[in-house]
Amino acid sequence: MSLFILEIGTEELPARFQKGLEKELITRLSSFLKESNVEFDKVESHVTPRRAAVMVYDIAEVQKESEEVIPGPPVRIAYDADGNPTKAAAGFAKTQGVELADAFRLETDKGEYLAVRKKMGGAKTVDLLAAFCPELIAHLPFAKKMKWGDQEFTFARPVRWVLAMLNDVVVPFEVAELNSGNETYGHRVHAAGPFAIENAADYYATIEEKCAVVLSAEKRRAKIIEEGNALAEKAGGRIIWKDSLLDEVQGLVEHPIACLGDFDASFLELPRQALLTSMQSHQKSFGVEDAEGNLLPHFLTVLNTTPNEMEVVKVGWERVLRARLEDGRFFWNTDLKVDVDTWLEKLDSVIFLAPLGSMGNKTRRISGLCADLAAKVAPEIQADAERAGRICKADLVSEMVGEFDSLQGIMGGIYAARKGETDVVAQAIAEQYLPAGPDSPVPSTMGGALVSMADKADTLAGCFGLGMIPTGAADPYALRRCCLGIARIIIEKHLRISAAELFASAQSRYEGIAWKLDEQEALTKLNEFFAQRLKNYFTSKGYETLLVEAVLGADSDDVWAADARLKALSTYSKGDGFDQAVLTFKRAANIIRKQGSEAGVELSGAYDTTLFENDAEKAFAKALEDVAPKFAQLWAEEDFDALFALLAELRPAVDAFFDNVMVMCDDQKVRANRLNLLSALVQQLGRLADFSALQM
To answer: Residue 434: which pLDDT band, with cuts at 50, 70 and 90?
Structure first.
């Protein structure tokens, strides 16, 4: 067994490309080797700013051999009446590259066929890799590719060298007008190279020791954390690590060296978020805080070299950051001098979506919607919610957000507090964009929840009215995320509101818009879209699709109740008797559907006891009547687990009814009465789940 190394040397690769590139190299090379019957132990990949390397451990030097029986034409066609081979036999042998004498007769269920045995595989791995590697490199996917020189070849960045070795042998091929070889290059400053690799087994040692490069992203990350923590501890603080920035920074360096810089303590008057954003966004640096979480006048940056004079480099970084912080202080002081009404006037000149008017228009709609929502779920904060909705976008025209757009909402909350708004208003504005994704938290306050839902519902209603409905992967206005955010807020904040009413109310607040879709059609499509997103949300949580469909088939409008019913149904589905219960109640639901709505017959669920002809009908009706008050009480208490448990009380009577009663009898009155008896059952249970959607 052997070791194969492929290294693609490039100009600096963007950090955002690196993790995906590692996965692609592993996946594509593994798949090729498996399809080629080349045995190996594992495939590993490491990407730095200047190289993408992939290693295959314990790879077989020869492709695995196998024998395959290949059938040809039937014997009756392959030979004539005298037993002489026909053109069909000769052509088959020629096609398979064998002598006709090597063919044999194969007995099958369909008759006797001419066949040959062919040995497959046995090729040298080095030859297979030489043919595959150029294709691998050429077809690696990137968000953006580029050309260089006069070549037609494209890659994320210009390719400068290619190393390809199987043990001590170069795997020969040409790609991007470069020949593969056994040379690699080191760090641009500390060890430029080139360095010859005599054997693939020497690659790691050469990279780490001679090239002055830390190959592994995990090791670069760990080194940054270790050195950063040590420097911060000496300064009496701790680093404010941000995972996304840490991933980016380790992807910017091959030779990470931590450096702790300082800035003037007077800048600490700026809000924490503004200071950290200045450091993180522009300087790719980390903040430092004390044990109580207060910012300290230090920052951590990561160098790509070991400088001869660290103090000189440190001063340079401090000078650059100071300029950024001076900008931030100017923006902060300028914004504090402006009153909120001035910002609101400016919002009328900021376009939301051209056909839907300005941001000023949007905030007026959000404000009204917040007031309506608060009246239903939190009347004590109605005035604050209305105010928060009106000024929630004011910071979009502030100087600070103009420079750091990632601070929108956050700075709005800070400015609101500084300009005399209530805590409820300030916190609601700060949380208006939550949740920002499937793993992001929902707003912690009710005010934030109301503003967030109103904002999202307004966007959804406007876009659907204009026919801007997401298709495929295209979703430029993040409407799927809007639906998910509304659903999560309703569920996690235990809100009992109608999603359909929310969207209708949002739509009604638009005035003078030239809609592309009829208003009712747009609402119908929006409600269907929301129900589909709700289904996807539940299935992503691990619930079985059929259970989700059954619950949403009963009602998807009361989102919190749908979530609670789904949890109860999921628990009930794991208990004894679930399958039989489903069969029983599904049968009832199917009969009502076929004989009722599909047949054009209106079934009210009202039945006449005088038309009962046997004891099974009477027992069924009595069981329904006995359960009804329990069902009503448990429904009012929202005890869905207990409601599903009631099915055990109903099922024996329903089973006996089906065993002893002919529903579709000849007497029209009796038939209708029996259908209404079943309809009464389905109407009651249909509030819990659509049993016809379940399959056993």
So the answer is: very high
- DSSP structure string for 461-509: HHHHHTT---BTTB-TT-HHHHHHHHHHHHHHTT---BHHHHHHHHHHT
Cβ contact 9:159 at 8 Å: yes
Q: Are 390 and 531 in contact (CB under 8 A)?
A: no
Q: Which ranges of 354-478 does DSSP label H, i.e. alpha helix?
A: 359-377, 382-391, 399-403, 410-418, 423-430, 446-465
**What dihedral angle (degrees, nearest 10) is formed by the CA atoms of 560, 561, 566, 567?**
70
Q: How confident is the model at residue 413 (pLDDT cuts 50, 70, 90)?
A: very high
Show the tokens assigned to 461.
């209603």
Bridge partner residues of 10 (DSSP): 159
Predicted confidence band at 294 (pLDDT cuts at 50, 70, 90)? very high
Does 158 have pLDDT greater than 90?
A: yes
Tell me how far apart the alpha carbons of residues 257 and 279 are, in angstroms, rounded to a whole number. Answer: 18
Which residue is it, tokens 């235990």? Answer: 494
User: CA 342, CA 361: separation in Å to the nearest integer?
Assistant: 15
pLDDT, one tens digit per residue, over 654-673 is: 888 888 888 888 888 888 88
Q: Cα-Cα-Cα-Cα dihedral of 633, 635, 640, 645, to 10°?
A: 50
> Does 679 have pLDDT greater than 70?
yes
β-sheet bridge partners, residue 44: 55
Say yes or no to pLDDT of 1 above 70: no
Three-state secondary structure call for residue 151: coil
Phi, psi (deg, nearest 5) at residue 142 = -140, 155
SS3 of residue 146 by DSSP: strand
Pairs from 418-421 (Cβ < 8 Å, separation ≥ 24): 418/336, 419/339, 419/340, 421/340, 421/387, 421/391
In the block, tokens 């228009």 appear at 361
Whole-Å CA distances, 574 to 241, 259, 550, 579:
43, 57, 16, 10
Quick one: which of 585, 592, 567, 571 has its CA closest to 694?
585
Nearest to 501 by CA among 373, 384, 387, 388: 373
Q: Which of 498, 465, 459 is nearest to 479 (CA)?
A: 459
Does 472 score more than 90 pLDDT?
Answer: no
Q: What is the pTM of this model?
A: 0.79
Residues forming beta bridges with residue 78, ordered by sequence position? none
What region, left, alpha or beta, does residue 494 occupy, with left being phi > 0 and alpha being psi -120 to 50 degrees? left
Q: What is the largest CA-CA distance in the chain?
A: 108
DSSP 268: G
Which residue type does 127 have? D
pLDDT digits (tens, 9 = 90+) for 63-90: 887 777 888 888 888 888 888 888 888 8
Tens digits of residue pLDDT in 22-37:
999 999 999 999 999 8
Which residues have CB under 8 Å from 15's CB, separation 6+? 49, 247, 248, 249, 250, 251, 252
Q: Residue 231: pLDDT band by 50, 70, 90 thresholds?
A: very high
User: In this structure, how many other beta carbons lie within 10 angstroms of the beta carbon of residue 90?
Assistant: 12
- DSSP β-bridge partners for residue 238: 289
Residue 109's CB: how many other CB atoms inside 10 A?
4
CA angle centred on 343, ends 342 and 346, rounded to 5°: 95
